[in-house]
Structure of DUF1176 domain-containing protein:
Amino acid sequence: MKVCKERTVLMAALTLACCAQASASDHLPAQVRAEVDAQCVVSDASRGQAPEQFPAGQDGTLWLVPCHIGAYQTGYQAVYQSDDGASRKLLFAKWEDRSWTGSDALFDPNFDPDTGILSDQYKDRGAGGCGGERTWRWESHTFKLITYRARSCSDDPSRYPLVFEARQDDAHTAGH
């Protein structure tokens, strides 16, 4: 009898978790959902992970959608949706192996809609001894890179060098 009760409780918990995930991602507009990878539309209510939306500029919305929930960081994809409903996935610069590449991933991002500043920090291994810190500013329907600090796992762990900084005349903080 005790095993039956435990199974019933377990099934109820799984059902609630499934329903919580479905309802958390149900508010994601179809146009936004179509832009992100399939694993990004699920949410983890037990960790407080769900798609977030923010006003972006005068005429759109920024969606940050969790994709890969790990032990020490969560990967997100970002989608800009204009007021007319048109959506597009945003891409971001990434410094990797001493070279530039592009990525659709952000890690534990923070966005301030008042300043238009988006930042994230990624770890290439759990201890955080290597990875990067990136900051962008929202401008004309996209993000402009302001600063980027990164170090590879083979670099001196005491240094976290600046690999990119926008020119001073480009680094204003108007935000919109």
Summary: The chain has one domain: 2-170. The longest helix spans residues 2-26. The chain has a mean pLDDT of 79.
